[in-house]
């Protein structure tokens, strides 16, 4: 169960780090996801974006640590009931519905936004200028689709 939860949160962190628009839609839990954010999540789930960046082993480890820290911070914002609902929904494969079903408070949404923003900034700081340029190019290509 926790393996799938970790995988779901990893996808979220990867999406944030790569600048995807998936996180605002997750935090805005009541709104529906756009086709472009679904495509982005699917692309990142396959790992295509990371492979193009040619991350070093050290960068991969730093990003993994960042992911774990971010996951812990987000989990700390949720109530026990929300964590249980999230784990059950992710286990069933319903990631989108999982976040919507949590009925996050305005305060929780803001805290999660702040955590994600900080995580994104820290993730970008791990990248080299060349990798950041590659990332910007990947974003531009994505937005043209």
TrEMBL record:
- What keywords are annotated for this sequence in UniProt? Signal
Q: Residue spans with biased composition (Low complexity)? A: 30-42
Q: Where is this region: Disordered?
A: 29-52
Q: Which residues form the signal peptide?
A: 1-29
List the GO cellular component terms. Answer: outer membrane-bounded periplasmic space
Q: What is this protein called?
A: Spy/CpxP family protein refolding chaperone
Signal keyword on record: yes
Q: Does the keyword Signal apply?
A: yes
What would you give as a GO molecular function for this chain, any one? unfolded protein binding
Q: Which InterPro entries match?
A: Cpx_auxiliary_protein
- Report the superkingdom from the record: Bacteria
